[in-house]
Description:
The complex is a heterodimer of chains A (about 60) and B (about 180).
Chain A: H1 3-38, H2 41-47, H3 51-60
Chain B: H1 3-30, H2 41-59, H3 63-68, H4 70-99, H5 103-114, H6 121-125, H7 131-164, H8 169-173
Amino acid sequence: MAFYETVIFFLAKVTxxxxxxxxxxxxxxxxxxxxxxxxxxxxxxxxxxxxRDRRAAAHRG
Amino acid sequence: xxxxxxxxxxxxxxxLLPFAFSVLIVALETGSLLPxxxxxxxxxxxxMICGAQLGASFTEPSAWLRSTxxxxxxxxxxxxxxxxxxxxGLYGMYVDRERNLAPACREVQQWQVDRSAAVxxxxxxxxxxxxxxxxxxxxxxxxxxxxxxxxxxxxATATEWLxxxxxxxxxxxxxxxxxxx
Lengths: 61, 181
């Protein structure tokens, strides 16, 4: 096997490892953002869509 | 069309189309999927995914890419650049080795297609002539291409999800580990 082939195989191994780390990083971004969004007042407002919420809103005026 | 559906159809689907046709043709011709152990189509898929994702990052930047956690998105873009260049390099190596394949290997390949003899011609003559090394090399490249395609596909799908979602809370409030405000 030529030297450059050895080098490219080695780089491929490193890149696959880095890609695994990157995927975990991005999935963490997605999950953390979703969790944080759910705790915001805007998300709670979004969730209040049922009849009970409409009655409560009407009662509040 | 919804963004994620568009992504799966036009990037993932079209990227995998050559491999799908390859599977179809090999299955019809040989009745077996073993010759697919030497196929470079997944490297094409890897290059295609990287190109699509890099192009989208540069031409259609979203809230996430522009302002939220620029460190993470820059890291992901760098990985796509690296992955694309590397997959192209592997593709070149593969095609070069296949172009200069030993004659004995060509006989084996032909035997896998037409099955005119009960055993491969190399096994009859005993003249291997550099064939096993070539075969092992091509199969090694294929193994690398499977890993690269799988992880690039996962990374690109996650990036696309972050890129096309609506602007959300974490984007506005938090600073990044890589890029603190």
